[in-house]
Amino acid sequence: MDTADGVADLHMHTTASDGTCSVADRIRQAGARDLDAIAITDHDTVTEGMDSRVTKRAGIELISGVEVRADALETKVELLGYYIDPTDDSLLELLEQVRSSRRDRNRRIVDRLRDVTELERSYRDIKGTADGILGRPHIANVLIEAGIVDTVGAAFEQYLGADGEAFVPMERVPAGDLVQVMQAAGGGVSLAHPGRIRADTVDGIVDTLVDAGLDAIEVDYPYDEAPDVGYADIDVEAAAALAERFDLLRTGGSDCHGPDSGKFRIGNVRITGDQLRALRERAGQRRTL
Questions:
Q1: HSE-CB for 178 with a 13 A CA cutoff
Q2: Of 185, 200, 265, 203, whose CA–CA distance to 231 is shortest?
Q3: What's the confidence (pLDDT) of residue 4?
Q4: Which of 58, 230, 233, 235 is most buried by its number of CB atoms within 10 A?
Q5: Per residue in 156-194, is it b (16+ CB within 10 Å) or e — as a string?
Q6: Quick check: pTM over 0.85?
């Protein structure tokens, strides 16, 4: 898509998870890029300060969102919830369950790293220095600081990735349960970046998610900047074909993590006003906006 045709970037992270910017930073950046709307989609958490499903700040429509890993057909997928109620008890309970699993996993990863490398720092120490939710990218930077690896890519290849020496699988919420909770919280639910699913084909996965009530699929995404080895062969055109085949709404976004992240691309990927309105209307059918 020509960015001149788009008005909204619906995928970005803040310091509440693994981004480098605050919500206020995101509002300023959105204004500088002439965006009408953005969604904050931090991992496993509703960003602090988001107290309603949607609000206007400095003329920008700010959408309350979240990105959560789930399991579909024994495969990791990520689901994006949009226009979610940040005070919904069932949603908050599920997100705390996911974060607890993540904390346990990170603790075990650090323990393994201390066994197989010369890392001396403890989990408590590493967690205490991380902004937002500690994740594998934070741990990768710790390995760089310790002189154990030279790059984040090397950290994942040798230690943190699926074939790494310190890899620990993460427990995942059943995708159908997650769709149900997000929608009960008033949200529209989209399958994030299908081209980043580790599967030969995603047709069966999408079919399963549609049966669970999936609303949308993330069509517009910087697939050309994502790894392709071991992942489904899905680009924007293929994702659009999936959306049409399964009669799903289209979402899209840059997956921007902010300056100094290697993924500072807010507004580089956008959806149209019509696509945004369709998503807003779908969420409005669940709870009045």
A1: 31
A2: 200
A3: 66
A4: 235
A5: bebbbbeebebbbebebbebbebbbbbbebbbbbbbbbb
A6: yes
Helix (H) or strand (E) run with residue 42 in it: none
Phi, psi of 44 (to 5 degrees): 60, 15
**Rounded to whole angstroms, how far apart are CA atoms 254 and 12?**
7
- Predicted confidence at residue 137, as pLDDT, reads 81
The helix or strand, by DSSP H or E, that contains position 249, with its residue range, turns out to be strand 249-252
User: For residue 147, what is the enclosing H or E element?
Assistant: none
Distances (CA, A) of 203 to 113, 137, 241, 272: 37, 30, 11, 25
Nearest residue to 114 (alpha-carbon basis) of 166, 168, 167: 166
The string of pLDDT tens digits covering residues 247-270 is 999 999 999 999 988 889 999 999
Report the pLDDT value the prediction gives residue 129, as an integer from 0 to 100: 81
Give, as one character, the DSSP assignment of residue 9: E
Can you tell me which residue has the tokens 């001149």? Answer: 4
In tens, the pLDDT along 41-96 reads 999 999 888 889 999 999 999 999 999 999 999 999 999 999 999 999 999 999 99
Distance separating alpha carbons of residues 123 and 108, to the nearest angstrom? 9
Residue 265: half-sphere exposure toward Cβ, Cα within 13 Å: 18
Q: Which residue type occupies 251? A: T
